[in-house]
Amino acid sequence: MPIKESLQNIKSTLPNHVTLVAVSKTKPVSDIMEAYDAGHKVFGENKIQDMVEKHEIMPKDIEWHMIGHVQRNKVKYMASFVSLIHGVDNLKLLQEINKQAIKHGRVIECLIQIKIASEDSKFGMDPEEASEIILSEAFSELKNIKVVGVMGMATFTHDKIQVEKEFKRLKSTFDNLKTIKTENCELNIISMGMSGDYQLAIDCGSTMVRVGSSIFGARNYN
Ligand SMILES: *Cc1c(COP(=O)(O)O)cnc(C)c1O
Q1: By the number of CB atoms within 10 A of the CB, which of 3, 9, 22, 137 ranks highest?
Q2: 117: Cβ below 6 Å to ligand 1?
Q3: Separation of alpha carbons 33 and 193, rounded Å
Q4: pLDDT grade, residue 121 (50/70/90)?
Q5: Residue 221 lies in a domain
Q6: Where are the N6-(pyridoxal phosphate)lysine modifications (predicted)?
Q7: CATH code, domain with 88
Q8: Spatial distance between the Cα atoms of 88 and 108, rounded to a whole number of angstroms
Q9: How far does residue 185's CA lie from ligand 1's centre (Å)?
Q10: DSSP assigned state of 11
Q11: Ligand 1 site, residue 98, Cβ cutoff 6 A
């Protein structure tokens, strides 16, 4: 199916309060421009270098989301333009994002990645760790970042019951963390759900879905 049609099909099924991040990783600029020309402006990449290259040559009203694991030494390359960093899972990374945001006179919005999957390979903090960090003195000094929500990735499995359990865990973590309101922390986003499970994620409370292959087709990593 053409990109424009897939995009419109998915958008027509999303409730108004859910933001669609079109995950364009590995896809060429020509594919992304098809989605852009169909009116879509929010794209997600998982490699900083790829996102930087695409940002340089594409229209400047695109909102670029970093959805992948972030290496501290690469934050500087995206600090001038990134609109939301989904995968923040430690205080040192928050401190680096803050430092780079200061250089550009910006406040960079971040989501705390919570580990909800049972697989060891998935990054993220435990809920307890997240609240400890948000309540810490060191965190309160970070005036150029703002934590606006949480992000999670469910286990890669066909077991819907397990995925649902993990999504509900993220929702209840969000509900708990939401009670903490500080100058640089005010949660209103739950980023969960991908091509295979975004409808279930929305049923469990997602407000932001990250959909790639259902829009752009299968990825080829070669
Ligand atoms: C690739 C990716 C997605 C999109 O996956 P699809 O199954 O293609 O929709 C969503 N979130 C993250 C973090 C990803 O890396």
Answers
A1: 22
A2: no
A3: 23
A4: low
A5: no
A6: 25
A7: 3.20.20.10
A8: 12
A9: 26
A10: H
A11: no
